[in-house]
User: Fold these one by one.
Assistant:
Number 1:
Amino acid sequence: MTRFTLVATTAVAALAFAGAATAESFKIGITQNNVGVDSYQTTYEKAFIAAAEANADVEAVVLDAGGDVARQIAQMEDLIQQEVDAIIIWPTNGEAVIPAVRKAHKAGIPVIVTNSNIAEAGFPFVKSFSGPDNITQGSRSAEIMCDKFKAMGIENEAKVAHITGQPGYTTAIERAKGFEDRLPEVCPNVTVLDTQPGDWNREKSQKVMEAFLVKYDDIDGVYAGDDNMGVGALNAAKAAGREGIIFVGATNFAVGYEAMERGEYWGSIYQSPVDDAEAALKTALDVLNGMDVPFLNYFDTPKITQDNQSNFTKPVF
Amino acid sequence: MASGMLSTFLKRGAIWGFILVELIFFSIAGEQLSLSDKAFMDLDNMLLLFKQSAPIGIIAIGMTIIMINGNIDLSVGAIFALAAIVLLDSMTWPIFAGLGDWAIPLAWILALLAGVLLGALNGFIVWKTGIDAFIVTLGSMLGYRGLVFIYNGENPTSHLNWTLVDFAEAQWLGLHTATWFLLGATFVIWFIMNRTVHGRNAYAIGNNREAAVNAGIRVGPHMMINFMLIGFLAALSAVVFYSESGSVNPNDGELYELWAITAVVLGGTKLTGGSGSIISTFGGVLAIQLLRKGLGHIGADTETVNLVIGLILIAVLFLDRQLNIKGKEELRV
């Protein structure tokens, strides 16, 4: 009997040991772009810390480069020197950090890029990119607009104006491409009148829209690369007294959400910093657990319109 | 007399005492708070400390001469960014295309030349107009930064050259490339300030400009040379740093002038000029990087780092003032 208990306790102890071994905690370091510069990044950091604390297997070293490339590179070196298990980086500059990422890669530390990707020259040294899929965001905006035109019964004659983000920015290029490719598929008879850059800037977008309104007597819909520009265009239309235009944006901002509540703005794409942060941590953990992670690991950014906006909390930015 | 020596000792030695306190604090606190299994004073970590000090350090060394002169240069951050653009962009110029990697030294020379020219412009205006250097370099800070934005708008200027990256990442006798440049700059400027006529003149001008003029020192050209020197060092700092990173944002180097001035003041150089030491500035640079590194090591936020450095700076200035007041009272009695 005593012999049996001894065996049993040993077995239990061994099991407990095995359990402890598999639940070995991961040290994950993150160096962020510039916390505090806007509320998206501030909320992202809070959400990341909360997610890391909620997970007993994770110890997180949370750093912020304050927008300074030199400081971010120094933080990468420090994390490599501290021998963390994985590094998450929100690049201050998609190219300047490539050598630092290569250093981590050489040291055998997997690197996950979050939110905005680094340049292609750095791809061989990166395990995965976790962030929004801007092409899908663009095509979803096209679907939102087309569905609304169908509901209004004007899908065969509607005319659309398109305001893009800053030229040269990957996010701007990808969203525009997603929109332009998808719109003819779902609404083949809708015509795009004009496309002009609004540079992510509300005032610039307002000016672009003012010019559109003078140039075109009939505009049924406006797609803007983000809500900031979308609201700028909306303001121009309101000032000119032009009503009935369907505004669709992307990256739902608080101003866009409020305009939707007032019934002036139709829809957008909901991109949550909380989802962004949690997706980055999960990607890092999946990589560390040896799971197969796609190189471009997107988190979902759902459609938001006046019809379903009550399901979403108002964005903080 | 004895108390004068004591206050000098306190001022000169304070920064090294402070570094020692930092090392001890972060070693002990690191044991408790850090997630890392490695000690804070790990050799690799200390080697990194020197390397990471280089970008601001090289500029701060130059800033010391300017401040010993009784001047200040606020445009170094903008010169840093402009020199980086010249470095990275010139490597892609078609006229250098046939040279292969020989374009690298040419790009270095062009960037350093750009720094010297921008510094010379500052110095020339200070010399010929007699306007305070603070105002002149405040203007050129905005102007040079404007040039940076005109050049490539909001977009980064990039050219990644792996030969250059490998050179910049190399370690020779354990020390990184950037560390060698920091040590080299420190030694050369130390030599100029302590072993040459130019260095002695710098102290004389800072102490009493009138007396220096009466003694036959040509103050204008002297200051212009110093502004060229700091322009060169700001460009050197950029060249060393961007050789490794290969891409410059238009807002890079912003606030570097303030970090450099902070390091100089932490090292005990007087804002009014006439006194200061290159070696102590080197200590000030190390102290700042140690704080950044150490607070990161124990898991503090970036904001905390800035707060602590700000508090320490005020404490240092207060200490400096107290010691100076005591010195003066002593003389009167």
Note: The two ends of chain A are 67 Å apart (CA to CA).
Number 2:
Amino acid sequence: MEISADRDGGAVIARANGRIDSSNSREFHSSLEAVIDEDDSAVVLDFEDVSYISSAGMRVILLTAKGLQSSGMKFALCSMNDSIREVFKISGFDKIIQIHGSQSDALAAVSA
Amino acid sequence: MLFLTTNTNGERVRSSYDELPELVAAVEALGERDGWSGELTFRVSLVIDELAQNVVDYSHEGRPGDVEVEVTSLQEDVVIEIIDDGIPFDPLTEAPEPDLTSSIEDRPIGGLGVHFTKTLMDDVEYCRESGKNRLKIVARK
């Protein structure tokens, strides 16, 4: 899975796309790790172009959140479709990971 | 091997798949053909993805085995049956409850698939019958 990356201030904005499931979750994990630099102060993962996520993808999100937290980097997710937002809610992940409606809101939150 | 039997308006079609994503793509195509909402298609394909993957990962203890998924699209419901001939296992009572409240550091990885099913579906039943695990799941349209 290709993840595109832009930078805004100290934050990297990573954009995933398509489906994130058991067939590509390892690739998703390695692609996400590859776009994050040690020097970044925050990571915004943009779900605008993601249509689906299963628990295999959620596992990668949680592992990433744990890793970033231990490195002292901020982490926020944004622009999810309603079904993906629901999956984050019923997983209880929305209580431990910031989720914003738009990329600009997510950037503002991690830059604060 | 994964098998998908679809039953729409009395027409039964059985297909086989090597990979889970192929099976899920076929379920999505069925939803599109049958006019399911995007939200319903998401729920149905997620639950099949999670539960069939659990069977593939655990039920046959490393041996190749079959998983049959049957989807019946009714007027008001979608009925999903997942059938395998692996070791007896009722995920509704035997799968560990997920931890939904710990902090990031303490949150365990995994255990969400069965939780998604219980939360997103309207009715779920398990039985062991003729040496097979059978899960019957109902989603209201």
Note: Residues 86 and 92 of chain A are 10 Å apart (CA to CA).
